[in-house]
Amino acid sequence: MNNDEEISLLSAEIALLNVELNKKYALLKKKQKQCLTKLDINRYSRQIILPEIGVEGQKKLKTASVLIIGVGGLGCPSSMYLASAGVGTIGLVDYDEVELSNLHRQLLHAQCNVGMRKVESGKLSLNRMNEDVNIVVHDVQLDGHNSLDIFKQYDVIIDASDNLVTRYIINDTCVKAGKPLVSGSAIHCDGQLTVYNYKGSVCFRCLHPKPQSPETVGNCASVGVLGPVPGVIGVLQAMETIKIIVDHPNVLHNSLLLYDGVDCEFKKIKLTNVKRNGCICTKNPEDITITMDYEEFCGSKANDKFKTLNLLKENERITVLDLNELISKKNPFLMIDVRKKVEYDMCHLPFSINIQLSDLKSKDTRSKLIEKINSFSNMTPNLITICRRGNDSQRAVDELKKYTEITDNVKWIKDVIGGLHEWSMQVDENFPIY
């Protein structure tokens, strides 16, 4: 045998040994996942000594996988506590980027990460907390076409989303895939928590067979939220998830927990444990389809942080550029900012007056408004309404046109398309956006 043949034979043997070595490494990792190392015992000892967890419970946590939909106000605290508790695999689903307005409540993200994809920012922070946890990112907008393939990879699903479309997609996919769903919500100073589809419990559709009207559903961007509120609910989501993983008997299913942050009160409401007749959760999983048009069903889009209404005709509205031209030509007009006082106090155009939308129905308010209109001596002004995004301002135009004592004393009543947000985008970049 010459040198070339011998080298070739040795190379082949090394390749076979590398294959065998890789198999041994994979087997080692698998065995390590099934037992607790010295480092695991040291790190998680404070929870392992609890009878509710113990060694077997910690092993279950180590081999468990949890999917969190939404890396925002709820997803941040829930993922932080699950990673810190030693959950083996955590999946993060989000399609959005970190914004400055997120930081007061979404504590995984730092100011230096503004503009970064939320899933990547979340992974960086979680890896810093616990490098032994496997963080899987799904940088996608969840829909009925991709949800099932993603959910199949995980044991427990956490709904940390902020819109109805996604909530229905998550619910239906969990029912079809047979996954327990830990659902939370937080807005203003209030929060809710429950567990759906767990050991025969009801699902989200049992309680909400039809979605609420889009106009009645708020979110953090439109209504606001105090940062600790999603923190409280997100931590409780992590708690219920841990209880599911270790098979604790007192999981919050068939009950709804309500949190009032202002009065610091928790209330637990017992839900019926009888599934609604004809609900999706009463069907065989094979017969469940999740390819319906969820956005049409809900009357809104999953990625709409701000819903846009079209209540007025084109000739009943002006653009911010039209408004700027009216100002430059010094045409007489009276502008009513119909936002809440707290929003008006944050920022407003100096030539506007604040009358909240709800106050326009008041006769006293309208009388004061007529006085303002009549103060334009020898001139008939235009009446303009404005708000944050151009929705309530349209409602204000509809309300004002009901009263002849107002319409008879102005040339026309119109609202500003896109509101103050559009003013900041197109006219004055220094005007605050919130």
From TrEMBL:
Its EC number is 2.7.7.-, 2.8.1.-. InterPro entries: MOCS3/Uba4, Rhodanese-like_dom, Rhodanese-like_dom_sf, ThiF/MoeB/HesA, ThiF_NAD_FAD-bd, Ubiquitin-activating_enz. It is an enzyme of class 2 (transferase). Binds 1 zinc ion per subunit. Zn(2+) binds at residues 203, 206, 281. One of its GO terms (biological process) is tRNA wobble position uridine thiolation. It comes from the Eukaryota. Residues 329-432 form the Rhodanese domain. The keyword DNA-binding does not apply. CDD domains: ThiF_MoeB_HesA_family. SUPFAM superfamilies: Activating enzymes of the ubiquitin-like proteins. Its cofactor is Zn(2+). It is found in: Cytoplasm, Cytosol. The active site is at residues 220, 387. Pathway: tRNA modification; 5-methoxycarbonylmethyl-2-thiouridine-tRNA biosynthesis. Coiled coil: none annotated. One of its GO terms (molecular function) is metal ion binding. GO terms for cellular component: cytosol. Keywords: ATP-binding, Cytoplasm, Metal-binding, Molybdenum cofactor biosynthesis, Multifunctional enzyme, Nucleotide-binding, Transferase, tRNA processing, Zinc. It holds the Pfam family Rhodanese. Plays a central role in 2-thiolation of mcm(5)S(2)U at tRNA wobble positions of cytosolic tRNA(Lys), tRNA(Glu) and tRNA(Gln). Acts by mediating the C-terminal thiocarboxylation of the sulfur carrier URM1. Its N-terminus first activates URM1 as acyl-adenylate (-COAMP), then the persulfide sulfur on the catalytic cysteine is transferred to URM1 to form thiocarboxylation (-COSH) of its C-terminus. The reaction probably involves hydrogen sulfide that is generated from the persulfide intermediate and that acts as nucleophile towards URM1. Subsequently, a transient disulfide bond is formed. In the N-terminal section; belongs to the HesA/MoeB/ThiF family. UBA4 subfamily. NCBIfam families: PRK05690.1. HAMAP family: MOCS3_Uba4 (MF_03049). This is Adenylyltransferase and sulfurtransferase MOCS3 homolog. It comes from Acyrthosiphon pisum (Pea aphid).
